[in-house]
Amino acid sequence: MDGKLPIRMLHDRLLVALDQEAGDRRSSGGIVIPATAAMGRRLSWARVEAVGSQVRTVEVGDRVLFDPEDRAEVEVRGESFILLRERDVHAVASERIDEGQTGLYL
């Protein structure tokens, strides 16, 4: 999203945008699997757009893995976002690499 969001997250809340590749998927054989296909419980990746003041392990720009069934959606400036609590995040894929870390932690 261009510019700063007109919203300030509170406490342990995250505002995330679903990854563009969250739609249709391809099997290893190249078959297209529609996003509407039932496949059991599948987690989704999203990019963090805003964080609350009590969020400790996630930063804006990180990619987080979460359960899409446990979500609340909101629209800001015509774009859809998802509200999560930090405890609802299962994993973080970060481009931030500190000394001795791999940059991807689960």
From TrEMBL:
<dbReference type="InterPro" id="IPR037124">
    <property type="entry name" value="Chaperonin_GroES_sf"/>
</dbReference>
<dbReference type="GO" id="GO:0005524">
    <property type="term" value="F:ATP binding"/>
</dbReference>
<comment type="subunit">
    <text>Heptamer of 7 subunits arranged in a ring.</text>
</comment>
<dbReference type="Pfam" id="PF00166">
    <property type="entry name" value="Cpn10"/>
</dbReference>
<dbReference type="GO" id="GO:0044183">
    <property type="term" value="F:protein folding chaperone"/>
</dbReference>
<keyword id="KW-0143">Chaperone</keyword>
<dbReference type="InterPro" id="IPR020818">
    <property type="entry name" value="Chaperonin_GroES"/>
</dbReference>
<comment type="similarity">
    <text>Belongs to the GroES chaperonin family.</text>
</comment>
<protein>
    <recommendedName>
        <fullName>10 kDa chaperonin</fullName>
    </recommendedName>
</protein>
<dbReference type="InterPro" id="IPR011032">
    <property type="entry name" value="GroES-like_sf"/>
</dbReference>
<comment type="function">
    <text>Together with the chaperonin GroEL, plays an essential role in assisting protein folding. The GroEL-GroES system forms a nano-cage that allows encapsulation of the non-native substrate proteins and provides a physical environment optimized to promote and accelerate protein folding. GroES binds to the apical surface of the GroEL ring, thereby capping the opening of the GroEL channel.</text>
</comment>
